[in-house]
Amino acid sequence: MLKVALTGNIGSGKSIVTRIFRTLGVPVFIADIEARLLYFRDDVKEIIRQELGDGVFNDSGEIDTKALAGVIFSDKQALKTVNNIIHPLVYHEYKNWLDLYSDEPYTIHESAILFENNLISRYDKVIVVTAPESLRLKRVMERDGVSAEKVKARMANQWPEEEKVKKADFVIINDGEHFLIPQILQIDKILKSNK
After folding, report:
1. pLDDT band at residue 49 under the 50/70/90 scheme
2. Sign of CA dihedral 15, 19, 20, 21
3. Which residues contact 12 (CB under 8 A, 6 or more apart)?
4. Where are the alpha helices (DSSP H) in the chain?
5. 90, 113 contact by CB (below 8 A)
6. Is residue 129 located within the same domain as residue 183?
7. How far is CA 17 from the centre of its chain?
8. pTM of the model
């Protein structure tokens, strides 16, 4: 089984691409969803409380993900701290998940920050989803209801798109002009022939 990483900068459209791959029957592991589930674990909450304090918790004692995002996207050290807590746990979940799909031609691990965390060597192939920065900015502002400044602060924590493209095995252009499905079908065909 090929382990395929799928990444792209914020607002590039990774979610729609992974939905299409899933429609084709490809198993997809979405790191952001797994990370959010970890925030409900008592041990993770305790470590985050020790590292970042009570300000990232709501009145119910749960992690307030918007408050947490506000902290980590404006403080590089806080981002590094949270990544060091969450990413090893997500990777552990991913390895367990892989065992369920060992007979598949390939699986996809979707994560926005694979390059930033130097994780690409764990995968056989890399797919990068791209879109113009202005379009990505607009998408995230509409999706998350946040200002351009907040989106740009998040973008600043990611590698430039052109650097990711240089290291990709496949590039999917999601600019509203190129059809997604033919691009994805072509990649699917290649990956299934390489098993």
Report:
1. very high
2. positive
3. 129, 130, 131, 136, 161, 174
4. 14-23, 31-38, 42-52, 65-72, 76-99, 133-144, 148-155, 161-167, 180-193
5. no
6. yes
7. 12
8. 0.87
pLDDT value, residue 195: 57
The token pair at 56 is 């990232």
How many angstroms separate the CA atoms of 161 and 190, rounded? 23
Same domain, 4 and 68: no
| CATH at 181 | 3.40.50.300
Task: Show the domain range for 49.
Answer: 33-100
Q: How far is CA 162 from CA 53, 126, 167, 170, 181, in A?
A: 37, 14, 9, 13, 22
Centre a 10 Å sphere on the Cβ of residue 51 and count the other Cβ atoms it contains.
14
The tens digit of pLDDT for each residue in 79-116 reads 889 989 998 999 999 999 999 999 999 999 999 888 88
Do 23 and 112 belong to one domain? yes
> What is the pLDDT of the chain when averaged over all its residues?
92
68 and 145 share a domain? no
Give me the percent of the chain exceeding a pLDDT of 70.
99
- SS3 (DSSP) at 189: helix
Q: Are residues 133 and 171 in the same domain?
A: yes
Domain end call among 75, 100, 125 = 100
- Look at the chain and report how many structural domains it folds into: 2
